[in-house]
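Shape is hard to put into words, and the shape of a protein is harder than most. The fold becomes a row of whole numbers, each drawn from a learned catalogue of backbone shapes. The outcome of that step, for a single protein, is printed below.
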Amino acid sequence: MDIDDLRTFVELADAGGVTPAARRLGVSKSIVSRRLARLEADLGVQLVARTTRGAALTEAGATFRDHAARVCAEIDIAKETILPAGDVRGRLRIAAPLSFGPTHLAAVFADMARRHPHLHLQTCYTDRFVDLISEGFDCAIRLGYLQDSTLIARRVGPIYGKLVASPDYIGAHGAPETPDDLLDHQALMQGTETWQFMDGHKAITVRPQGRFKADNGTALVSAAMAGLGIAYLPERLIQEQLASGALVPVMTRFPIPPAGLFVLRPPGHYPARAVRILTQMLIDCFDKAS
């Protein structure tokens, strides 16, 4: 049984079809189909059933997928232990936030690729919370306050936030003085989130309301600059606007508790070497710079 056949099957299972699996692996569709056929012949069972929407795992395929993924992971770990120090090979697929990644993370990813010329690095920039396992990502970078999850998270640095608005908005509507005052203002939000503030050592939670919502931090910056309301944003995302005066801090007597920058990976006993290296590079960049 060939390890490439196993890897190809795992990719096909996670991607949901031959075409996306070929795209992930960087090979032709015919190679994916040939590897799958060879694996099914070796096992004597059908693993994947063709459908009008792509491919679906058979019952045997669904059972075999997890075992195949574990075998591939164990082989990767075994290979890492005998590689020369600093020699990282293979592929690393990262999900990074669209509103923060290109400006603050892309340079770290590029530096990693430069240091490790045998590593194939692919980044997907999106503010959507991707499913690491089903979408085939090795890790994700996320900002904020993490929800309960089966994923394994490593904090790599603090993220400090500010409550901001444009001078025009403050001139027209005034500035909130306390968290309760926020209920009388338009909030610029990603969804139905709550906002937290500190009053000394006491945490205060507010559920703001607003008519403008976006799943992207850069869009919320633009809305705040346009005078549409008050935004709760990471300082790193609004440094330029704060420096120019396009946005100004409000309600500074009630600071926002620090959030975090996290590397998340699927559950497992041992993280891939590339994920460990990326995590340390992010710690060097963000934790020491804070």
Residues 179 and 285 are 33 Å apart (CA to CA).
